[in-house]
Amino acid sequence: MDSFFEIIIILTLIVIQSVFGVGLLLFGTPSFLVLGYDFANTINILMPVSISISALQFFKSKISDKDFINEYNFFCLPFLILFLIIALNFKYLFDFKLLVALLLIFSSILILNKRRFSSFKKTLFKLKKIILIGIGCVHGLTNMGGSFLAIYSTLVSKNIKELTRYYICYGYLIMGIVQYLIVLFLSFNFLEFSKLYYVPLAILVYFPAQKIFRNINDKKFSKYINLIALFYGLLILIFNY
Q1: Residues 138 and 145: beta-carbon distance below 8 Å
Q2: Which residue, among 166, 179, 192, has the nearest Cα to 60 in the 3D structure?
Q3: Which of 23, 41, 99, 151 could share a disulfide with 16, CB 3.0–4.6 Å?
Q4: 155, 124 in Cβ contact below 8 A?
């Protein structure tokens, strides 16, 4: 029987991802690893839920951006595939959590500090392709690249919340599908499929959560996303070092 704590985690993260487009993998991955699940089964539980929410957000979006989609697919996905295969086969020979935490804290504080960030903004836009490659590498290795995707999306969307979430949900949808197919292919015999009922739960929660999304203005939406990334970076440091 599912623990009460596990259900609360899933339900809370479904609400967060339904509003901001990010959360299930970001917070769910370390939480389920702590609960005793291995990396492959953690992905197997969280990924169908994440894919369901991202698909709803993407296909119901009134905004589209083919240039972003093409750039994302070309620069991010190949590195995601490569580094996920490395993670599944070598069982984390290297611990990248500290690096992820430090980068999250640094980038979040930088963006939240508007004066200092403005001087770096032009440079960051020139490095967009490199950032996408980095997101693919980090997400493949750790399943924690969603925070960087969220930060990146706030930058390229110019703090327009509908566009920000469109970029996040597309990135998560495609990364999720690719990751899940690779995990199914490489680890199918070791996976447990008894938790798929979390998917209809996500669909039920998604629609009422959109009222929260509509009531958040653009500036606050971007600020909350960066605060989530900062909070997550601090959590990694606190619980792992």
Answers
A1: yes
A2: 166
A3: 23
A4: yes
Every domain of the chain and the residues it spans: 4-240
Do the beta carbons of residue 132 and residue 76 sit within 8 Å? yes
CA distance linking residue 80 with residue 140, whole number of Å: 5
Beta strands in the chain (DSSP E): none
Q: Are 47 and 176 in contact (CB under 8 A)?
A: yes
Q: How many of the other CB atoms lie within 10 Å of CB of 67? A: 7
Cβ 145 vs Cβ 135: under 8 Å: yes
Model confidence pLDDT, tens digit, residues 89-107? 775 545 566 666 777 777 7
Residue 8, CB half-sphere, CA atoms under 13 Å: how many? 4
Q: What is the pLDDT at residue 155?
A: 80
